[in-house]
Amino acid sequence: QQQVKQSPQSLIVQKGGISIINCAYENTAFDYFPWYQQFPGKGPALLIAIRPDVSEKKEGRFTISFNKSAKQFSLHIMDSQPGDSATYFCAASEGGTYKYIFGTGTRLKVLA
Amino acid sequence: DAGVTQSPTHLIKTRGQHVTLRCSPISGHKSVSWYQQVLGQGPQFIFQYYEKEERGRGNFPDRFSARQFPNYSSELNVNALLLGDSALYLCASSPVAGAGGEQYFGPGTRLTVT
Q: Measuring CA to CA, which of A44, A73, B24, B44 is 20 to 30 A from A88?
């Protein structure tokens, strides 16, 4: 019940295309859902986050879509660029805690 | 403003030894959390500290311990190192405890146990 399932494991997208990464969870007590970007040898960097009272949040080229009834959320990267090539992690935390449960990661490669 | 800083950057230890990793949070942040990231996997929660008190603990053995100092910096200690402890250890800071929300990660300490 504490898992966050992330897919796909890897993704290859052409420059200018849309990258879509999906996550699903079971624990209905989760109330905060961030996405992180991680480059090799670096720590995860916060991209964008959402709470369950909102169905969509957009920041620049990054959009989170949230479906509370299906217990799913996704990251859309519009106009994907080679510099977006990195590993992306979804996460969830419960009830005002900072204990993040991370997904397994998606390795994105954007072809020039 | 400086982000989360961690030291050392890399560390090589032998099985059975102990190790101390250090973290300084973003200025003004009072909560520090520690995560272990094994290669190819997502980070796993180890501890959260706020105002020098443990506020959360993940599913890690008692060989792992941590503490937070009055200046909000933190140490993670691991005793009796095992080969499986080889990982990237990440520290994350956040403004307050109990509210949930954003955490900001440091660059990590790469620990190799031989």
A: B24
The pairing of beta strand A19-25 with beta strand B53-57? unpaired
Q: How confident is the model at residue B2, as a pLDDT?
A: 81
Q: Among B112, B93, B110, which Cα is nearest to B102's?
A: B93
Tell me the residues of A at the B interface, defined by beta carbons under 8 Å apart: 6, 31-32, 34, 36, 41-46, 49, 89, 91, 93-105
Of B45, B101, B106, the CB nearest to A43: B106
- Once rounded to an integer, what is the mean pLDDT over residues B84-111? 88
- Residue B51: predicted pLDDT: 84
Nearest Cα residue to A44 out of B10, B36, B23: B36
